[in-house]
Amino acid sequence: xxxxxxxFSYGLCALTALVFARTAFxxxxxxxxxxxxxxxxxQPADSDERGLWGVMDRAEHEIKSSRFLxxxxxxxxxxxxxxxxxxxxxxxxxxxxxxxxxxxxxxxAPNGMMQVWTxxxxxxxxxxxxxxILGHETGHYLRRHTLERWRDVRTKSNFSAFLGLGLAxxxxxxxxxxxxxxxxxxxxxxxxxxxxxxxxxxLNLMADAGYTPTASPEVWDQxxxxxxxxxxxxxxxxxxxxxPLPEKRLATLKQRAAARGGDSGERGKxxxxxxxxxxxxxxxxxxxxxxxxxxxxxVFDQLLADAPDDGLLWYAKGEIYRFRAGDDDAxxxxxxxxxxxxxxxxxAEIHRSIMLMELxxxxxxxxxxxxxxxxRLRPDATDLEMLRALLP
Amino acid sequence: xxxxxxxxxxxxxxxxxxxxGCAPYSLVxxxxxxxxxxxxxEPGMEWxxxxxxxxxxxxxxxxxxxxxxNRLIFFEGVGDxxxxxxxxxxxxxxxxxxxxxxxxxxxxxPFEVQELVHATIARxxxxxxxxxxxxxxxxxxDGSGFRFDTKFTARDEVDRRGVxxxxxxxxxxxxxxxxxxxxxxxxRYLPEFKRLVDSAQIVGTxxxxx
Lengths: 392, 210
Description:
The structure holds 2 protein chains of 2 kinds. Chain A is mainly alpha-helical. Chain A has 2 domains: 5-259, no CATH class; 280-390, Serine Threonine Protein Phosphatase 5, Tetratricopeptide repeat (Alpha Horseshoe), CATH 1.25.40. Chain A is 62% helix and 3% strand. Chain A contains 22 helices and 3 strands. In chain A, strands 1-3-2 form a 3-stranded mixed beta sheet, sandwiched between helices. In chain A, a hairpin with a 4-residue loop joins strand 2 (106-108) and strand 3. Chain A is elongated, with a radius of gyration of 23 Å. By secondary structure, chain B is an alpha+beta fold. Chain B has one domain (3-208): Mog1/PsbP, alpha/beta/alpha sandwich (Protein Transport Mog1p, Chain A). Chain B has 4 helices and 13 strands. An 8-stranded antiparallel beta sheet of chain B has the order 1-4-6-7-12-11-10-9, sandwiched between helices. Chain B has a 3-stranded antiparallel beta sheet with strand order 2-3-13. The longest helix of chain B is centred in the first third of the chain and has 17 residues, at 3-19. Chain B is globular and about 50 Å long. The termini of chain B are far apart. At the A-B interface, helix 20 and helix 22 of A face helix 1, helix 2 and strand 9 of B.
């Protein structure tokens, strides 16, 4: 489920293949591209495509009752609004689902089911960045890349054997996925050409919808920085030797963004932050639970560059250092917590974290103060008795 | 998730448990057992010792109804810098070998061990739906220890509830974690689990360590 090398180098992996209208693409779009799009209300044309839709319909049925589905109304309405703004006439054909999975990903199935993972929401700095990714996915869908890819695979192997192999590789065993759509998605990794095409379509869609074109290369830049920065924890040679960084692709995207208006257009920063507010503590906690310190630090730093007084983000940085417990991490953690308390948005649990950190450095009185602050704010917390026992 | 959905999923797991007949099980008799030369317990009923394909570590695993339905995991002295357990290499689990796992530190207090268990569940069972709560001091292995409740939903969408009981002795973590699917495969065996925990002793060289 983590971001694979293939996903990284080819970009967002997506199950795509459906509908999109010329009207949604706008006047700036090359007519040669738009005429290859599927039409609004598109239905599968042949048995190949019907089979593919059938698999996706079943997966969608499972997703609707999934415990991992984020049902919070405001964020769902918000994403739906962006999709409709990008997709225009095709809006009724696309159904979006927010899934609580802490990795950078979104994908769109050929039947119009779109998944948006919470790890993507955490990493986007504004509405325009999210629109860039959703536009890219829409690009795959408009051009029915999944079908193209699927036919390519079928000429080489029997599909059911192919699917079976994928399921085995994903470790479906004692506790395995029943409807792990990401797994199915991974079976349809797109070609480099398809990714580049989706980049171009996505950029045009977002520019036509009035979003800042630069947000598109920007979000990829951020992801690239995250992966580069994480190599201390990863095997650099394995990650990058076989899959060169898509810098050429990024350069192309930057040129195209500049040609489509560069920094002009709408960012939607405040709206994005407001819509995400209720689920952000959960997104941060899910990222921290991965214990990918290097990567997470870069993610939070990137977000803090835009919101230097975000108490939740400073708290998150403190947590990284507390968990990592390396040289000088105690000081780093305590400074980050202090900064969080000077800002808005730190959760009450920060006092518990401060207590644990102060205990580690032997500052008894400060640990006690932090304990009482936590107990005051969370009088019903189930861990108070144990925490009190830890105090000297 | 509806009750009906959950029932179907549990039936699927039950079927999987039946089909897993070829897994390397061995019978554990209700007599005193010593695990890893460090932890001794006396079960009150027959259990199955199982070699699992998906995770590995300084652990031993028992089950009553099959590992998909309930598991009892013994931690036989996890040392400083070691993960509680990790996906067995080649099992296709979530953790890539180039991703670091959260590890136990001998300076950890009970709360930090609880956080470690949370992160270990999240990574090993590929889930964001994890809750660890009700951390309390308890007696374990003839000394002071701690316990907390666990609850998580793995990718198979089944809720699993559990209890984790442990102690840190001589820089190593000794403990036992029982979890099961739904109330039937968890609540039903809680008295047996409590009995087992009460019977636990730290033995061998570990017993002398403070």
